[in-house]
Amino acid sequence: MEIDFDSTEGVADYVTVPAGTYLCRVAEVRTGTTRGGDDRWSLRLVVAEGQHVGKQAAWDNLVFSSRGRTRARLVMQALGLPASGKVNIDPDDLDGRSALVEVRPAEYQDSAGQLVRRNEVPYDGYRSTATGSQLSSAVGESRDGEVDTGQIPF
Fold first, then answer.
1. pLDDT band for position 130 (50/70/90)?
2. What are the CA-CA distances from residue 75 to residues 17, 43, 71, 145 (Å)?
3. In angstroms, how far is CA 133 from the centroid of its own chain?
4. Which domain holds residue 72?
């Protein structure tokens, strides 16, 4: 076998599921802070049912700043957690919770100049399973027209 280890494609592709909406569960929550000093929780979202069950759908961040509060509220509501008034929520409260989550591929260039491709969740990409519970076992079509039982049609 001949391999050229100096030849690289220049793309790190971490997209594991096609674009679409999936029933996802929060598999891990990592806490941290932003450069601005605000609290940030990174959520690892894993597909909970269908063709892609068990695959990582995306990592998503919740930032608890005045600007990020509205999105954090949307995510908390979708996960079935309190999202109004003054609440006390721990990262462990999110573990195992599920929601319908839209993912789509996004690209960026890292500090070394390599192109990185990952799935991202749009700003309003979370929906409660209460409103989509009948859809969770439905058969949908992926964006390329192929049937995908892991997607939730909208």
1. confident
2. 21, 11, 6, 29
3. 19
4. 11-133
DSSP secondary structure letters along 63-108: E-STTTHHHHHHHHHHTT---SSS----GGGTTT-EEEEEEEEEEE
Task: Find, among 14, 74, 19, the residue nearest to 44 by Cα.
Answer: 14
Number of domains in the chain: 1
Are 111 and 104 within 8 A, CB to CB?
no
The whole-angstrom distance between residue 81's C-alpha and the CA centroid of its chain comes to 17
* Residue 57, beta-bridge partner list: none
pLDDT digits (tens, 9 = 90+) for 33-64: 999 999 999 999 999 999 999 999 999 999 99
Residue with tokens 């909970």: 48
Domain at 59, CATH number: 2.40.50
